Amino acid sequence: MSVLFFTVYPEEFLPTYHSIREGAKVDKAQQAEFNGKPDSLFFNDGVRRIDFILVYEDEDKKDFEKRHTFARRLRRREYFEASLMKMGVELEATPSVVDDKLTFLKIHMPWDVLCTYAEVLHIKLPIQVNDLSSRPSPWRYLSWIAKPFYPSEDLIRKETEFFTAPFEKDRLEYFYVKDRDIFFTPSMRSRMAYYILSRAPYEIRGSIKKFGMNKLLDGGVYKAAYPLHDCRFNVRSSEEGCPNERYLLYEEWAHPKSFYKMQPLDLIRKYYGEKIGIYFAWLGFYTIMLTLAAAVGLGCFIYGYTTKDTSTWSNEVCDPNIGGKLVMCPQCDSCNYWPLISTCDTSKVSYAFFLILVFSCFCSFPPVTLFLEFWKRYQAELEYEWDTVEFLEQEEPPRPEYEAKCVYERKNPVTGVKEKVPYTAWGRCVRVSIGMGTVLFWIMLILASIVAITVYRLAVFITFSTKLRNTDLKDLEPLKEYVTPQMATSVTASIISFVVIMILNVLYERVAIWITDFELPRTKTDYENSLTLKMFLFQFVNYYSSCFYIAFAKGKAVGYPGKPVYLLGEYRNEECDPGGCLIELTTQLAIIMGGKAIWNNIQEVLLPWVKNLIFRHCNSAASEKVIPRWEQDYQLQPSSKLGLFYEYLEMVIQFGFVTLFVASFPLAPVLALINNLAEIRIDAWKITTQFRRIVPEKAQDIGAWQPILQGIAILAVATNAMIIAFTSDMIPRLVYYWSFSVYPYGDHPDNTMEGYINSSLSVFNISDFHSSSSLVTNTSIPSNFSNGFVFFLDFRFPPGHPRQYEHNVYYWHVNAAKMAFIIVVEHIVYFTKFILSYMIPDVPYAVKEQIKREKYLTQIILHETNLKLVTRRLKNGDDEILSNEEAKVTKEEMELDF
Fold first, then answer.
1. Which one of 290, 309, 709, 807 is at 20 to 30 Å from 763 when CA atoms are compared?
2. Which run of H or E residues covers position 104?
3. Domain boundaries, the chain
4. Which residues fall within 8 angstroms of residue 133, CB to CB, at 6 or more apart?
5. DSSP characters for 7-65?
6. Are the CB atoms for 356 and 724 separated by under 8 Å?
7. CA 50 to CA 634: how far, in whole Å?
């Protein structure tokens, strides 16, 4: 059966062109009227189950201008349906109840066809009840406390656990077939039906065979293709044999009243497939791990906010006798001098983040590692329970788009057999190079937009500084008290940055899909991994570049008042607030995270709901009619071709915000937790009530997102250490508190932070301004300023010193402490991550035992079957008769081989 890995479908199902054309005229799909049962999942005979639905429009009932196009569609549809019947699939066409132009084609797969394709797709099915006794949980005595937080056992009952093996048609008697009608679950049947639909030919021209359901959908031959929901989501079906799984999922999972309950993952997997199940399992696990980080972050923030008035540093800034008498140098060439006391509010707020050192080490380092390691263990348990342990890449069938373009031959390095491929080695290199070049171009475009926003910040800061400070309007006096030029510039730039991010996302999404289609990956997993890498690289630069600029670039190369640094020779580089750029980075993160969450909810929830509402309103005349199940589902929204790609991308980007910049925004885990609690139920409500049933797919893990998460976790160590060292003023404070006893402006009292303000500022004489500087002529001097000296944020020698305005020893001490902090923290954290990764096994011991037991049973069954086949063949042979003694020896030899 290994040959089937590389074939489209069994050769006996391959019809010729002429037989199809002749058969299409005779073997029409059975025409049937609706039987009046709205929740029926069967053909009109009530016996054959509907495995898939195709919808097409009867083109004879419309006046077409281009009859040639629609004649080709009709020809392709007839050929395609005849191909399906030649492959053993049974069809039944039913006209629409609501729209007489539509026809619904019901597809049923008989038992023999199901067995054939279950073997082709290596579907694992039960062979024996799991006889391994589960070990009692140490928390079983407290189960009554957690019981209300789990789905109702009366509605969703726990299913019997089985050992499973890949299905083989010739060994059917060894599988646990209690009832043929339910042996293959509806999700399995839909998956096999979709496999056939994706590979049935619809046209042959010479030696070129065209096939693929997606091509027919894109060409308008069919309007929709989907499996059926089993019932209405809010009403239990009364049809005999209906499992009502959709209703149960809505009641115990998607309904808002169940927001506090754990997810019924086994039922989700059974109804939607392993790919959907593993996503919700990961999202739920991630949300639970956020709870502890959110609690610690919220506690740190509350403590810092309630004790902000006790901070010696902020009290000195707000003291009229200290901060009120310190006149600061203008931050732009046309700005005014300003008193340090004007930053009183921001200095108090920045103290609320004083515990960022402890919190970032707690949240970004060991817990992230524990989250990833424990997720691997949990994922291993799901892999075993959901029969995806041996879901290997070579078992995954090629994509129809890949198979359709296979025109070259090459020798398979594994099997040694010649196989068809769509490109040569040189062609593949060209395709990948073009794709990489396009991705780099778009990344450079993002960086160009960041430069443009930076220029905007520099230009607008001057405008806000001059207009906001010089305005005489009395109505703006309260605004002027709370809105500083830095804050106004930061908020407007963040909003513009978010808008640019959203626009570039829409454009690049289409480019990334085009590039991936052009590269022509072999399997769907390869396709999704390639697209995932491209989209994440783009999103990483798009979402995080502005945050990296504020955290690590802004205010780092500004020079000093007498010799400022200019960008593009015109715009003076912007400076940070005396408390650092931490507040501005927090503002940027809050706007992007909040705006992204709101936009995603509008796009994912509100739009589908409004579309369905409009559709129902437009068809209100048909509301009195009895609408069948397949037509009810047709009125729902189609699922995305990329499936869960955007859901994963949204959560991984959020994971980056929570880990990469948590040192600047301790409330990020809190916001992420609130968002995720709503996201789980919103996604569940969306796919259960607003969308057609998704085609079930097999998946072993979360795919390419796993190494991406690990990469983010590693990078988070460096970014948070650098934020603490370079963006906040944590290290200068600690250096002042622990290391120095004498400063240029007085003695350092032991164990206090008094005098830190003077130590963090440098003095400048305004007479050292160049005569051409606008600061000499265009800037008003404060009334309390008479000695000709102002202050600026830096560590430099004062005027009159032999090395005036050069960096002093304190500057080098502080920078040395910053570098030492980064090196020490990174090494400690990376070592801790390595130890934790080594100590925590990826697969639990109990799961390993069950996997070994299952493999043993499978081999025993297959061995006995092979032995019987050999014995039967030898006994029935004409040239060789096997005696009892010889049979015994043969059996012993085979057991030794086993």
1. 309
2. strand 102-108
3. 2-254, 262-731, 845-897
4. none
5. -SS-GGG---HHHHHHHHHHSPPEE----S-TT--B-TTSSSBP-EEEEEE-GGGS--S
6. yes
7. 15
Q: Which SS3 state, helix, strand or coil, does residue 407 take?
A: coil
Give pLDDT tens digits for 773-820: 555 444 555 555 546 788 888 888 888 888 888 888 888 888 898 899
Give tens-digit pLDDT for 203-236: 877 666 777 788 888 888 899 999 999 888 888 8
Contacting residues for 712 by C-beta, under 8 A, at least 6 apart? 652, 655, 656, 659, 660
Secondary structure letter of residue 126 according to DSSP = E
Give the pair of three-digit tokens for residue 687: 């796919």
Residue owning tokens 């991406």:
708
Q: Using CA atoms, how far apart are residues 750 and 179, in angstroms rounded to an integer?
A: 83
DSSP 260: T
Smallest Cα–Cα separation from 375: which of 31, 844, 834, 828?
844
Question: Cβ distance 689 to 256 under 8 Å?
Answer: no
Q: Which pTM does this prediction carry?
A: 0.81
Eight-state DSSP code of residue 121: T
Q: How many CB atoms lie within 10 A of CB 519?
A: 19
At a CB cut-off of 8 Å and minimum separation 6, what does 828 contact? none
In the DSSP assignment, the letter for residue 768 is G
Spatial neighbors of 825 by CB under 8 A, at least 6 apart, are 361, 717, 721
SS3 content of the chain, % helix, strand, coil (to 5): 60, 10, 30
Looking from the CA of 868 toward its CB, the CA atoms found within 13 Å total 10
Structure-token match 């454009």, residue found: 507
Residues 6+ apart with CB under 8 A from 643: 275, 694, 697
Task: Compute and round to an integer the Cα radius of gyration of the chain.
Answer: 34
- Tell the burial category of 750 from Cβ atoms under 10 Å away from its Cβ (0-12, 13-18, 19+): exposed
Report yes or no: 543 and 653 within 8 Å, Cβ to Cβ.
yes
Q: Angle at Cα 325 formed by Cα 321 and Cα 327, nearest 5°?
A: 155
pLDDT of residue 879: 46
**Any residues with CB less than 8 A from the CB of 15 and at least 6 apart, and which?**
23, 82, 83, 86, 87
Of 17, 509, 38, 11, the C-alpha closest to 229 is 38
| One-letter identity of residue 617 | H
Look-up: residue for tokens 């062609």?
Answer: 427
Residue with tokens 């925004």: 665
pLDDT in tens, 115-159: 999 988 888 888 888 776 666 666 666 666 777 788 887 788 888
Residue of 332, 329, 328 whose CA lies nearest to 459 = 332
| Rounded Cα gap, residues 530 and 66, in angstroms | 39
- Averaging pLDDT over each range in 98-107, 470-479, 753-762, which range is the top one? 98-107
pLDDT at 57 over 80: yes
Cα gap 458→471, rounded to integer Å: 20
What does DSSP say about strands 124-129 and 162-166: parallel, antiparallel, or unpaired? antiparallel
- Using alpha carbons, select from 349, 588, 353 the residue that is nearest to residue 489: 588
8 Å CB contact between 817 and 731 = yes
For 61, counting Cβ atoms within 10 Å of its Cβ (0-12 exposed, 13-18 middle, 19+ buried), the class is exposed
Single-letter code of the amino acid located at 677: L
Give the angle 196-202-207 at the CA atoms, nearest 5°. Answer: 105
Q: What CA–CA distance (Å, rounded) separates 8 from 198?
A: 9
* 214 CB-side CA count, 13 A: 9
Give the CA distances from residue 414 to residues 258, 410, 562, in Å, rounded to whole numbers and listed in that order: 51, 12, 70
Cβ burial 628-666 (10 Å sphere, 16+ → b, else e)? bbbbbbbebbebeebbbbebbbbbbbbbbbbbbbbbbbb
For residue 625, give the nearest of 36, 20, 15, 25 by alpha carbon: 36
Question: Which residue's entry shows tokens 């129902």?
Answer: 616
Note whether 60 and 109 are within 8 A (CB). Answer: no
Structure-block tokens of residue 755: 């005098």
Amino acid sitting at position 571: Y
